[in-house]
Specification:
Strand order of the largest sheet: 1-2
Distance between the termini: 30 Å
Strand content: 5-15%
Radius of gyration: 25 Å
Structural class: mainly alpha
């Protein structure tokens, strides 16, 4: 039975109608569910979806011990995921461009100068985008198979927080493995250190145009997003009330409560000369610089006096000193703590997180601002809170999460191909492809349109039924215990595997009737190719159920 036929089945209409209706309704207040076990609820929030293995592990060691383990990831101690990364391949043109060849993910650990060497042949477009494609493939593999699921959730969070569109510039694509390593290195670390690493990364310098920013006039793009998105947030933008820095409360005392356009202009001047070594003439008379690494071009810097958030900058400071002073001011500002902690609570708990939880996270953030694991300590407060542990149906899965959770729940054998990576764009979320600096939306309203819901379902059916043999294999029958024999037992087994709760009686009976094809539901179907296809259809249908759309 093909996908088009499947979509016409009455069961799909029932499940689809329930999904569209329930997902569009207001979300219930945070409360424990009597139907879904707590371990599954926690895993659905702490990971890209519960698997039988993770459920067993949490039940064995306890939720608190599991959370603590996840807060201390050791990616080297993840043999299955590491083996899959080593075995993964992507097709790439042969040396004579005649026939694609499968080649391993070889650029993930390359140094920045190694990656930058690929820019020497500007006409080899495939080589230029290859590093970004490899990161995309690795991101999918890690989301589906990594033991360190909380780390993967946070890496995804930070990629969206410091959003960079890899499709803007081929040089961004070339350096993307380096950018991804920064996200992984600092995801649970210190925000001030993290902020400087990202600000000096070639991808960010290129994306927000600071790589070409020179005095008179400075390019304001990076400085604007630094304030509005990366640190204080638009909620601390006060230009609608104040036009002069002296008028901003606290500014005279060098403790401004927010920022105005003047702060952006002055910060932009501070970052002039922050660029990358890309075919630059060495100011000291040596060889031209072309490594792609962060570089200070002193002659581009605006050396005059500046003032940011009420704090005066002495003239004739180095570009590095001026820029880092801005980073200090914004990273340590209380508004940044509020903005970042709200975003973390929104990502991990609810679209509109409880103010009390945000305040607790802010308190921890500020107390640990100079410590190496500031972010980890803040995340611990969030994920050990009752709002996190007992919450349910507060976050809708974005398409990336939705498909990753489906692959995890179905225990698929998965090796991303170029065709798979391209097809995910149809789901509504191409990795690293949001065109503007704010990153993918993190509220349910954006993802719950009829078009968006149907797009994710079509992507799911494409994965399950169109058999992308080079990317995904499902062996669902082999996963069923030997005692699972009858139509009813098979349906019950997969409901528990994917949803962990019972369906309402009407939906259950229609699903059972469709799966058993009007046979006695307590009879045992022969284990043949026909059953294999029907089990696939069953699992795909369950993936469209409302309960599977929520984290």
């Amino acid at each position: 039975m093909n996908r088009r036929h499947l979509l016409s089945l009455g069961t799909t209409t029932v499940l689809g109608g329930i999904a569209l209706r329930n997902l569009s309704q207001a979300r219930p207040a945070i409360a424990a569910s009597s139907n879904v076990p707590r371990e599954r609820r926690v895993l659905n929030r702490l990971s890209f979806g519960a698997t039988p293995q993770d459920l067993a592990r949490v039940r064995q060691m306890g939720i608190n011990a599991y959370i603590e383990e996840q807060l201390h990831p050791n990616v080297e101690n993840d043999p299955d995921c590491q083996a899959r990364l080593r075995a993964a391949t992507l097709a790439i043109g042969s040396d004579d461009h005649s026939r694609p060849k499968q080649r391993p993910l070889q650029t993930l650990d390359w140094s920045l100068p190694q990656l930058w060497q690929l820019t020497e042949d500007e006409d080899d477009f495939e080589a230029l985008i290859r590093p970004a494609a490899e990161v995309m493939a690795a991101t999918w593999i890690r989301a589906v198979y990594s033991q360190w699921q909380l780390q993967e959730l946070l890496v995804d969070f930070w990629h969206n927080h410091f959003n960079i569109n890899i499709f803007k510039d081929e040089w961004i694509a070339v350096t993307w493995p380096y950018t991804d390593r920064l996200m992984r290195q600092h995801a649970l670390g210190n925000f001030r250190v993290f902020l400087e690493a990202i600000a000096q990364s070639p991808a960010m310098l290129l994306y927000l145009d600071n790589a070409s920013s020179k005095a008179s006039p400075a390019n304001e793009n990076f400085a604007r997003e630094l304030f509005e998105l990366h640190t204080l947030g638009s909620e601390h933008y006060l230009n609608d009330r104040y036009q002069n820095w002296r008028d901003v409360p606290g500014a005279i005392e060098q403790n401004a409560i927010g920022y105005i356009d003047q702060d952006v202009y002055e910060a932009a001047r501070a970052f002039t000369g922050w660029t990358i070594a890309a075919e630059l003439e060495d100011e000291e008379g040596g060889e031209d610089l072309n490594t792609g690494e962060f570089h200070i071009q002193n002659s581009w810097h605006d050396p005059y006096q500046k003032r940011v958030l009420g704090v005066e900058f002495a003239p004739n400071q180095s570009p590095l000193a001026d820029g880092c002073k801005v980073l200090d001011l914004v990273a340590y500002h209380p508004g940044t703590a509020e903005h970042l902690c709200t975003k973390l609570c929104r990502r991990l708990v609810a679209d509109d997180p409880p103010p009390s939880l945000v305040r607790a996270a802010v308190k921890t953030w500020l107390e640990h601002r100079d410590r190496p694991h500031q972010i980890r300590e803040t995340v611990r407060v969030i994920v050990q809170s009752p709002e996190f542990l007992d919450g349910e149906r507060q976050k809708v899965k974005r398409p990336f999460e939705f498909l990753a959770s489906y692959l995890r729940a179905s225990q698929a054998s998965f090796n991303p191909s170029f065709a798979f990576l391209e097809s995910t764009e149809n789901s509504g979320q191409m990795l690293f492809g949001w065109p503007t600096p704010e990153g993918y939306p993190d509220r349910a309203a954006y993802w719950l349109s009829t078009h968006g819901t149907l797009a994710r379902w079509h992507s799911l059916f494409d994965l399950t039924l169109d058999e992308q043999a080079d990317a995904i294999q499902f062996d669902l029958q082999a996963q069923m215990p030997t005692e699972v024999r009858t139509h009813r037992q098979i349906v019950d087994y997969w409901i528990q595997r994917l949803l962990g709760t019972a369906l309402d009686s009407q939906t259950y009976e229609q699903l059972l009737q469709t799966f058993s094809q009007d046979r006695n539901p307590d009879s045992s179907p022969p284990r043949n190719a026909d059953l294999k296809g029907r089990v696939r259809q069953l699992v795909a249908l369950l993936g469209t159920h409302p309960d599977f759309q929520w984290r």
